[in-house]
Amino acid sequence: MFLSIVFLVFALTAAIQLFYYFRFNLGVILYKHPDTISEKKPVSVIVCARNEAENLNKFLPAILEQDYPVYEVIVVNDCSEDNSYDVLGKYLQKYPHLKLSTVNKDPRFTHNKKFAQFIGIKAATNDILLFTDADCKPESDKWIARMTSHFDIPTDFVLGYGGYFKEKGILNKYIRYDTLTIAIQYLGMAIRGIPYMGVGRNLAYRRSLFFNNKGFGNYNHVISGDDDLFVNSNAVKKNTRVEFRIESHTRSIPCSSFREWLSQKKRHFTTAPYYKLKDKFLLVPEPVSRLLFYISFIILLSLQFLWPYVLIIFGIRFISQTVIMALGQKKLNEPGLLAYSYIFDIFSPLINGAIYFSNRPGRTGKYKWK
Predict the structure, then answer these.
(1) Per-residue CA distances from 18 to 11, 39, 102, 319, 350 (Å)
(2) Which domains, from first to last, does the chain contain?
(3) What are the start-end ranges of the H helices in the chain?
(4) Cα torsion 103, 109, 115, 121: sign
(5) 190-204: b or e for each residue (b if 16 or more CB lie within 10 Å)?
(6) 136-138 vs 240-242, strand pairing mode
(7) Is the pTM for the entire model greater than 0.90?
(8) Taking Cα atoms as reference points, which of 159, 249, 169 lies closest to residue 204?
(9) Which of 100, 125, 203, 218 is the most core-located residue (most Cβ within 10 A)?
């Protein structure tokens, strides 16, 4: 009886996994961007920076030298204590479309990234806003053109892809794998009419929408969420588009140590409790079913219970996983991850679960954005 129940769990979790593969993930693989030739509307690019002098010097020119007719770049220099002013001053003289907003340090007032974001949005003169980070570099000079080409009348959001630079080491491979799989999920769900998040490394939305919906609203106190929670609260099927052609990608500097990545991941997970209930119901079954799938597979195979059927079901899921991952990494320009993905696929639910449950309630203020 026990093994029969385990087999049913195995078959059910495999079916759930295949549902996610073919319903959502496959949407990214098969998606064809519309060949829209729309009017190139004025755009405001917003970059929040705290002690980012080196990255601003390295990556800001790629933003300032985009092939786009009318746009401004607003850098919010948020309480920087390095030589960010000197770097920005150099570029202010060279690029007339660069604007600077400054948040001065005040010991009586502490704030998260949302406040700096709000300052940048207030300073913007255009309705279409495009966001990225100071440690991000656009993949091409067509970044703005691609990300803003979908803003027709019903569009309020465009969800883009923000990857990380490829470097040596297993941590870098896991960071890129984690970023890729999350992107395939949120882009795929948006394609299927269920937008639930975006990433601030590459996200566009309307300034009018921000103010009409009272900004960051009830989650203003959460250390993260200037991107995913804003999308989760305001994006719907009719007002959301996706853009992930390679020319529209951004690349960011990845964490160089496990401790740094762990802190970043914990900060990101502080937003999870604030997602809409329906999105939680859609998101939780995938990692839970994946974990149960592998556990039940090991039990059944070790005891050789209905092993031919077990291997057939496992093989179907394995082939589907391989095809989705191979085509997904090609679509989002993340080469060299397929072989590692088989191991990461097993352990990532455990890693993410441990990180999520280690974030005790009431600790949202512990993690600083910089």
Answers:
(1) 11, 40, 49, 10, 20
(2) 2-28+279-358 (no CATH), 34-274 (3.90.550.10)
(3) 2-20, 26-30, 53-64, 84-94, 113-123, 143-147, 170-191, 207-212, 228-234, 258-269, 277-283, 285-302, 307-331, 338-358
(4) negative
(5) bbeebbbbbbbbbbb
(6) unpaired
(7) yes
(8) 159
(9) 203
- As beta bridge partners, residue 369 has none
Contacts of 235 (CB under 8 A, 6+ apart): 156, 157, 159, 190, 195, 196, 198
User: Would you give the DSSP letter of residue 97?
Assistant: T
Look up residue 2 and give its amino acid: F
Could you tell me the sign of the dihedral formed by the alpha carbons of 335, 336, 342, 343, in that order?
Answer: negative
Tokens representing 177? 């794998």
The answer to whether 149 and 38 have CB atoms below 8 angstroms apart is yes
Tokens of 217: 């609203």
pLDDT tens across 5-43, in order?
999 999 999 999 999 999 999 999 999 998 766 689 999
Provide the residue type at 136 as one letter: C
Q: Is the pLDDT of residue 113 over 80?
A: yes
| Coil/strand/helix, residue 233 | helix
C-alpha–C-alpha distance, residues 163 and 288, integer Å: 25
**First and final C-alpha spacing in the chain:** 54
Q: How far apart are CA 302 and CA 16, in angstroms?
A: 23
Tokens of 249: 């990608």
Q: Is 357 exposed, middle or buried (0-12, 13-18, 19+ CB in 10 A)?
A: exposed
Q: 197: which residues sit within 8 A by CB, 6+ positions away?
A: 186, 227, 228, 231, 232, 275
